[in-house]
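Table 4 source record.
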Amino acid sequence: MCAMDVCPSRGCLLLLVFLLQCYNPVNCKNVGPKTFVYSYTANLTEDSRPDRIIQSVKAQVSVTPYLLNPVQTQIGLIGVGKKLLHVEVIFEDDNSERKHTKIEAVAEFKSDGLLQKLHIPTKSHSKITDINIFKGIVSLFVINENFEAGREIDSSGACQVVYAAVDNVATEYNHIVIDKQKSSCKQLQKPLDVWRYSLLPTAGASEAKQMYVRYKINAQNKYLVHVMAYEGLTVSTFSGLDGTEVRFGSWQELDLVEVIYDDRKAVNTEEHMLMDPNEVAVKITGSPNTFIHLTPGFPLKQTTDACSLNYQLFDTTLDNVSERIQPPTLQQAIEGVRNNLQAEQMGTMQPLHAVVQLTHLLRCLPNHSGAVDLLIDATSLSPPAIDARLLYRQHESWRDQLVEVLIGCGTPTCISVVLKRLEALTEAAVVSQPVKHTGHAEVELARKMLFNKLWPALSYMREPASETYRRMIACCRPVAIVINQVICLTTLSNLWPYVINKEDSTMRKSLIDLVEKFLIIDLHPNASSDDLTLQGFEKDTAKNSRLIVGLTIAKNLKATELIHLVTKIALGSVEVFPTVEATAIRTLVVLADEEEHFKLHGSNVEFQLQMNNLKPNVIGKLLKAPVRPENDILIGLALFNTLLELDSSPETISFVLKELAKQKRWPLVRVCRLLISDLCANEVLSISTCNCLGENASGDSVNFFLCDLGAAGGWSGLSIKKESTDGQAIFIPGELFNLNDSLIVKYELQLLTGVEGELKSSNLLVDLLNIDGEGRLFEFNITANGLDAFAPSLNVVSLTSGSSFDTVGWINIGLKNLDTILPPWTVFSGGLSDLLQSFWSTVSTPTSLLQVLRPILDERQYRTFAAGWTLIIDTFGLMSLELSGAVDASVWTRSGRSLIRTRLGVVNEVNMYVVDETEKSGSALIQGFGGEVEFDFITRTKVFDLPEGICMSMSRSNDMRILRWEAVHPMPSFQFSRSKKTSFNYRDLMNSEDYHILHSANIPGVSYDLGLNNTLRCNRMSGRNLW
């Protein structure tokens, strides 16, 4: 059969000729065969030093287009529809390991000019870093054919883009210029080696990006002549704090050098008539391909310098650890920080900066048993270093702070040393013996080191593994002395929320069993000798101290399993101190809010019964006439506060206030109104609720509804916002520190006094506010009972009898710093003779009560650039806190002063560097800031002038110092390596060769307002407000 029989017309012949030339069903068409050769440069800089290039790349880029549209005859790269681009990159920069390296791939584009997928040869074994740079180059060819706004995927991620013509008329050079702006980019991959630990309301290293691309296109032949891309990244080293931004700039430039023709590039279409684009890509590259997208991957650092908390990502089967890590280097580094860890250095900046450097070093130790042994030898903190002879040398020494450094290090290697020390000291302290004084000096020292230092420090451990937690419970369970068991239980309760893999119910049950006996009210006549509730031996003050401990730990644990015991104390008819009852009421609402937690650890049926009755019971008890009117404000305020958290609807609140007014309980009504005013001022209650209750939180009259408060809202004196003239309830807010409204530290003092003016409770709250929110920094609580016994009108004989609540004074202190509570501490219990006796033993020189050294901000984040670079941002913030106290009293004048001094030091350093697998990653930039401050809280008392004979003052007598710095030169992280001499030297913050001081300020001291009545009392009492 002839061709004319099949195709008689001339048009059909022409079509047949075309099909013979392009036989591929996908209409593959090689253009020319034409190759576009470009020169490519890219660099990364930081704005404060634009002359210093952090990273740079030079390469030759060859692009050969293969059109997939038979109708298209255009020979350029833009506006040609569906196509394949064979991209080859040959690196030409100074990186010796990357120079002359070649990477190739076939980019498949859709008809709209956007990338569909990238075919990369499986034979390619390029590093992730090089592949990312290659993706950054290919991304420059992603441009919408019609310049339409929309969503595009390239090396910046999935972004929203808009286009704009800079000059939409052909220029004298026959070029058009198009700008593209990218925003709201979302990464399609997530890094593995990240962590975030923050005790502050901050987003850490927050960012802001600017991304622009400018294309120059030949208007006639659609050649892509020139591309310039800019990406700006602003990293805030501390979110919301002005002046802590670091700005990076990344530039990419692609310039057309020549267009060449190379027959070897052509694909013979007659041989690929049945090939799809995937097969064409295989033919072009000569290798099987795998498909990837353009979003950059996240390279991991080398195992030898990983220095990461994500130890599981790196190879831990390292041999000859002792050859890689020279013991003298480790010992030298630890001894070098010895002076900085002395107790007198707590709360100061420069020693903290040295500890930051030591922590980075310790994290570079591999997760290996050999490294644990070397660290034990270097620190002498664990067996066999712990023996009777070394106990004397280690007691109250700098090694107490060294333990906290290891806990802050957080790696399995560091924690292993700490756990070995815990188990060794537990054995040496013979904790199962209930005798406080054993007669053996070594045992006494071991107990002090264990319970005064080690157990409290363990509260700062983060995310302990379940096995670690079990080992700690095993060390706490046999402790026989009550106060020591309180210490270890408090630590375990602090750690419980952070335990990893705590599905094992037996671990939770063993912990609850230890706490339960602290909440038992009824005494057991057949109790064993070490039972906490031994009948006939437990005084009322001791029982209430025990209950305070149980409530504090149950609240911290959110122990819904114990809700029945807490309810009995809070809402039952048991006889406990009013302050303990109020504490139980406030604990109850926390447990009632843990429904999901209760389902995991308790009977859901029992929980629902408790919940269904809780709100009516709270309201019922609140509206019931008090048995002891002098406790009405204390108990009533706790119940009202609980009701607000259970049900903050204005209808319920107004009903309760109206009923209280009917009962003419005006002091309680007024205090409740003060509380509402305070919550509305702090935006805890909604605007509609505040408006309804008459607080006028908003002038918006739309849907404004005024609640019926009855007589409770009719007396304007009930809702005034200043302190009470009768001294029964005081809410005093203020600011400790305000940096341009970007970082605020505020305080609030809440005081509650009895009818005689005696102290019942005092709460000092210190919060941090910034753009990311609000967080509690510090909480100091005092609960008291029976202090009216010291009023001068009472008979002195009755003061010392101790026969009833009314004649025995009792003071308990609670302290919380950040997320960690300290064991409640009963600082006084007894009558006037006990008070006078304590005057004789007072120390007027400030004595350390608490020392804390812990991380407050610790995270690793990744940021990527469209050019392919990956920036790691390591942030490490450290806090040093010392709380000291002193009493200066006179038995003769029955007066005295007490001091609580807080010294605080903070250092936060951010290390930003680009990960490069071809060489050791060097630091691009190190910036940090820090501060140190000292606060004094002084109380002056004249016993026989009470209740007027007491006044308080809070001041910052010394200057507050603030510092910001930057490393002068890039500083690589320390490596333990065979190939290099391993030595470690600390860098001095004040050394101008190492650091450049960006900002330094000394803020003068100041006194803080603690209320009008307090000021008047202080003026009448006269005396010094400085220590």
